[in-house]
UniProtKB/TrEMBL annotation, chain A:
GO biological-process terms attached to the record: translation
NCBIfam families xref list: PRK00132.1 (NF001099)
Cellular component, GO, one term: mitochondrial small ribosomal subunit
Superkingdom, natural source: Eukaryota
Alphabetized GO MF terms: RNA binding; structural constituent of ribosome
Stated name of the protein: Small ribosomal subunit protein uS9m
Keywords: Ribonucleoprotein, Ribosomal protein
Alphabetical list of PROSITE patterns matching this protein: RIBOSOMAL_S9 (PS00360)
TrEMBL record, chain B:
Family of this protein: Belongs to the universal ribosomal protein uS7 family.
Segments forming domain Small ribosomal subunit protein uS7: 187-345
Name of protein: Small ribosomal subunit protein uS7m
Compartment annotation: Mitochondrion
Biased composition, class Low complexity, residue ranges: 46-63
From TrEMBL, chain C:
Source organism per UniProt: Trichoderma parareesei
Protein name: Small ribosomal subunit protein mS29
Keyword check for Zinc-finger: no
Origin organism lineage: Eukaryota, Fungi, Dikarya, Ascomycota, Pezizomycotina
Alphabetically ordered keywords of this record: Mitochondrion, Ribonucleoprotein, Ribosomal protein, Transit peptide
Pfam families documented for this protein: DAP3 (PF10236)
Protein location: Mitochondrion
GO molecular function: structural constituent of ribosome
InterPro entries, sorted: Ribosomal_mS29, Ribosomal_mS29_fun
Main location: mitochondrion
Amino acid sequence: MATIATGLRHAKCAGSIAAAQWRTAVLPRSTFSLAIRSITSDSQKTTPPNLEVEVAASVPIPYQGVTHARVVPATPSYFSREPQFNDLYIGISKLLTKYNHLPTVPPSEAPQMPWTKLEEMRAQMGEPIKASHYAKVMRVAKRLNLIEPSLRPQEVKVALTEFTRDINPFLNMPNPITIDKFGRAVGVGKRKESTARAFVVEGTGEILVNGKTLSEAFGRVHDRESAVWALTATQRLDKYNVWALVEGGGTTGQAEAITLAVAKALVAHEPALKTALRRAGCITRDPRTVERKKHGHVKARKMPAWVKR
Amino acid sequence: MASRVNIWGACRSLALRPRPARIAAQSFRSQISSTRFYADDATNKSSSPPSGNSSASGSTPESRPGNANARLTNELAQDASAGTVSSSSQARPSDALDDAALEQILYGGRPVTSQREGGLTEAQEEALYREGVIPPPEEAEAVLARSEAAAESQSIVSIETDVQKAGHKFGLPQKPYPEGFHVKKRYHPVLEQITRLLMRHGELSVAQRNMATVMNYLRTAPAPIYSPKFPLLPGTPPASHLPLNPVLYITIAIDSVAPLLKVRNIAGAGGGGRALELPVPLAVRQRRRMAFQWILDVINKKPSKGSGRNQFAHRIAEEIIAVVEGRSSVWEKRKLVHKLGTAARANVGSNKLKAKKKK
Amino acid sequence: MASISLRSLVRPSLPVAPRIQPIIIAAFSTTSLVSAAAPPAIKNRKDLPKKTKKTYKKKQNIVPVKKPAPGERKAFRKRIQLSNNSALPVAGLDALEAQTMARPESSGRMFAVPDEVVDQLRALEAFKSTQTWNLFRKPHVLVRKETVELMGRLEASLEKKEAFKCVLTGSRLSGKSLMLLQAMSYALLNEWVVIHIPEGQDLTNGNTEYSPVPDTEPMQFTQPVYCLKLLQNIYKANRAVLEKTPLKQDWSRLSATLKPGSTLADLALSAKESEFAWPTLSALWTELTQPGQPPVLLTLDGLAHINKVSAYRDPAFNPVHAHELLLVRTFVDALSGKTKLPNGGAVIAATSQNNTHFHPSQELALSQLEAGQAGKPVPKPDPYERKYDDRVYDALKNSTVMRLEGVSKEEARVLMEYWGASGMLRSVLDSRVVAEKWALGGHGIVGEMERASLITMRM
């Protein structure tokens, strides 16, 4: 809105007003917009009654009531590096001072918001926003988000939408793993290039990987231990049977993919184990993979040997 | 504090800590454990010396009568303690430590085995793996109990909530979780460090196999014969206890030859373009790393005796036994480093160092 | 010109007037030219001066070390250590007796191997360096369900007066060689004569000497050196039994020392040189297959190697089938039932999974036998496979197949309790730990359980 007002002012060119810019930006809007419409055909009907007044008034007394010799920008941010962003900041900090007294919730209970990332904000506004400035603003926005949701004023809600993305990724939840009629829970795990599916069912501790026993599937004892770590750590190796299907990658990757798959399926059986399994390192997907090869390099980092010429 | 590297305080605290285990006399132990510095204020001991210092050493009921060596070291410890008490009021604790006491600290000279029949308690082993020294059993128990209490206070809340909603079928695992609970930290920390040092060309599984072979070699080898010339870590259990506990065996060997310090060369601080040699204390992991690197150097120069893929592991195991028996050349290296450190201790509070820092 | 050359050839008979010798400046040597040693004569390529590569690396001062003697390294690698003085002695376990392993109630228990049997087994080379005997104070064995079954069959063979022919098979590290060892100790305790071929591979990979037997078609071969060693091993292991048993036939043509009243031990000892080893061994075998002699246990480890075409060649440079080697043929004849054992006894062959090659006809024969025993449909031969060997089928067709897999959890528990009592397992031992190791060991494969709990960094 502020931009429109400025645009109008520029069109009028002589709109120098003595009042503070904040007010001018809002107050004279209607009149000026009328004036703009006067260019169109329908406004011509309205002009005649005004015309006499105007004519009477426009008996020229030059520069009467003009305090500024030049155009005054609509916002004080006009000369800043990031005017729109600065406006946002000013607006949001005013809101914070206004609603500072409202009760807050701890950060863990505040509603999750898909905050706009720095890159996105730069693209939206077309302004070279500094990362430090962005961080400052986001700090204020996150503080506003802590206000108890039931008591949150509409004004705040509207203001916060400026800082959020249109899509909420937090609504995009994975389907919960269910236990089917045979008592099986299927977990999927990945590591490096490997993918594993583990069918976990209550039983007596028999483990089969791709139809083979653990010792046939993995030559290294370390890998066998890794594969059933979720069961070993929670002392349930004699309580469940596992049928795992795993493909891709090498032995370490396959074994640790099975770890993750078994852990997920086990959590479906017994949700209370999740904390223990997280402490055992079985819940988190290990995101490390092979680093890509770059051009000009022999491998990911290796450079060709230096040759004099 | 950071501006002045105060090695002697640290060194003494490292070496003095286990001293009581050797003497095994309750009264003397309490007296010695009071000689502490700011470096180990975590143990909350009062720093004032107990009364009756002189009577304690000679008349302890459990001190062995025939052991002149023990007597001597007692006196030395007394010297050291007296020195430190006076030094706490003075500016430089390094001044107060006479050469004989330092000799004791750096090169030992005490009977190695603990007098306890049953070897180490679990708490003592735990402390050894964590800190690289063997504390007396009571102290170790206290530390262990404290850490357990802390862990339990953390877990109380979660247990209560668990009772309310049972999301499990066979009971939850006991808290605090045992050692090696995490899938990536399943091995003993000392072994883990050594295995990574053994590893060549990123072949971890080979290194682990070698480590397992080393441990099995130690288990099948006869018990070592301790050498009185090269004393091990104070409080070491009798030799017959080691083969069945290879982790302890390896830890004792490595921690015993580990240097307490290294000499850092500060470029240009010596004056006339020379480097200033400054002794710096090492942390436990650093010490173990250095000791094992020395052992590896020796191993790499040795020829293998047989053939097959276990030769490397066998050489490591043989060297570890040699270290414990005092036959290894690694002891010489340790002595050399300590000698250098002793010679360079005049530089600890050097003015030139301060001037350099200011600039 | 001609006169000068002629004169130079003529030996100067007249004293020549002294002349001024030219002074040779070039020679700095003070010794005369004659006394300088002549350069070594170059006779072949090896004597040519070698081009040495110039290295700029600093020479490390390598201390000259005494190199081990030939064979010493291998002996070190292959040595068998049967006791560990650091391990705790396990009290309360009975020693094996003659009938212990055949009794059903001893199933699932550990037993100590008696010392004299240990010596005999060592002489037979029944222990392997890959087995973990070196961790424990004394050799102990677990009597499994399958052990009791096998020993029952051995016992029954005595009554039936007929050989029990058996092939042990099963997955890797499942205890096939150990089962052979148990069978041998059973036989030794019951005063059988035990003949054991520790590695089938040694017979066929061409590493031992061989010589043709004259007047045979196709040509057959003996392996004199191996036979001599085998004969000595047999004597060492079975000395007590052999010394008690008199000869039934007259073997004086082999050796002058063999009188009519001498014993089998004399026969075994009569071969002092390798030329006489095979005739003596075959004589011993003939004696043992006579009625009235003690029962025999003939065992072999690594079956696949004696069913293939061997690495030997005949004089026409054709490859020799392993069954043409007389020692192998003796075993195969016994296994196929061609040679009867009238005193009872057993012929047991064990397959190996570590040291083996894929042998289609052996696989087929064993699977067919197994299916036939279980009453399942017998698998058909693969029509596209060309490498089937009828001789292998004939060799195996009369034998029983015994498959060894993992032990049950109860047996695993007994085994692990023994490990714990020896001080080799440091952790608490409860049913959860047993179940863990049982699963890690591929459902109770004994060797894999050992790997997972004894030969590991987590102990």
